[in-house]
Amino acid sequence: MSFSLLRNTAHLSSLPFPIRFISFTAMPKARKNPLLLNPGSEDDGGVPKNRVRKRRVEMIAKEVKTESPDKKFLRHPEIEDFANKSDNVYSQSIQPPANWERVIEGIRSMRLSEHAPVDSIDPDEGVTSLQPKERRFAVLVGSLLSSQTKGHVTHEANQRLLENGLLSADTMDKAHEATIKSLIYPVGFYTRKAQHLKQVAKICVSKYDGDIPSTVDELLLLPGVGPKIAHLVMIMAWNQVEGICVDTHVHRVSNRLGWVSRPGTKQATRSPEETRVSLQQWLPKEEWVSINLLLVGFGQTICTPLRPRCAKCTISKFCPSAFKEISSPASTSKTRRAKKEL
């Protein structure tokens, strides 16, 4: 049912009968019969017609009384019907994948010999001198800017905000949105993020005295904040580990390694949030912080989105996806031509 239809029929929910109740005005008009005008007239069977009509009305009224309208379909869907609901299927822990410790050690060794883009960024640069409240707000701002944006672009935008004195909730709340937008450009979705930053700053000033929320649930209520950002902020701003930070690299690598699956199946997880919950079922909590940086760098250098470098990967023998995504369209066509010539 469309929202416009819901709006047009919302006033009907107070009626004592279902909307599907038949309307007598919509029924075909009866042919004029002089007998119907006479209350005492009878049909061929000798039963007065006014009595027959009375019985029909009583039967319909009885049916209507026993039915009640389904109010669920007569109201707008509420946001809380869908948002932030926990999935009970994830409540129990599962057995860790085979050889997971050897896989992590192998990835750590490869990370030492391969410099990844994520290794070039110092998240604390310029913010360590800030007051605690301002530093926490700067962490939140940097996390919001990082979504759908390369690390060095996020870092440079954060530095421009710092140089212009806008890495505090109070100063950002007073700044013009256009100023914020020009300073954070060219981060991904910079127009929307400028709006979110203004809204977040206002909330932090009015509700938290210039500080930021200190729980995951409260952080998730802020504009633009999802589970990944919320857990990242909890770790970096409050030094509290309540979940794994899962980005696109962690999501991809975890699925390729067969470390995660949808509940009750062996199918790959469909989102970073499903991956986070699945990982947390078996990965020891002492690994929750390091696993992000480990798999992000690994995903940037070896286990890349397109044509992963499986031949150079030292843990390929443990990977169920090894060598399954390495062929390019060009090499495939060359192979086909060679077979045809033979």
TrEMBL record:
CDD domains: ENDO3c (cd00056). It catalyses: 2'-deoxyribonucleotide-(2'-deoxyribose 5'-phosphate)-2'-deoxyribonucleotide-DNA = a 3'-end 2'-deoxyribonucleotide-(2,3-dehydro-2,3-deoxyribose 5'-phosphate)-DNA + a 5'-end 5'-phospho-2'-deoxyribonucleoside-DNA + H(+). It is found in: Plastid, Chloroplast stroma, Chloroplast nucleoid. The keyword Repressor does not apply. Keywords: 4Fe-4S, DNA damage, DNA repair, Glycosidase, Hydrolase, Iron, Iron-sulfur, Lyase, Metal-binding, Transit peptide. The gene is NTH1. One of its GO terms (cellular component) is chloroplast nucleoid. One of its GO terms (molecular function) is DNA binding. Belongs to the Nth/MutY family. This is Endonuclease III homolog. Its cofactor is [4Fe-4S] cluster. InterPro entries: DNA_glycosylase, Endonuclease-III-like_CS2, Endonuclease3_FeS-loop_motif, Endouclease-III_FeS-bd_BS, HhH-GPD_domain, HhH_base_excis_C, HhH_motif, NTH1. Pfam families: HHH (PF00633), HhH-GPD (PF00730). Its main location: plastid.
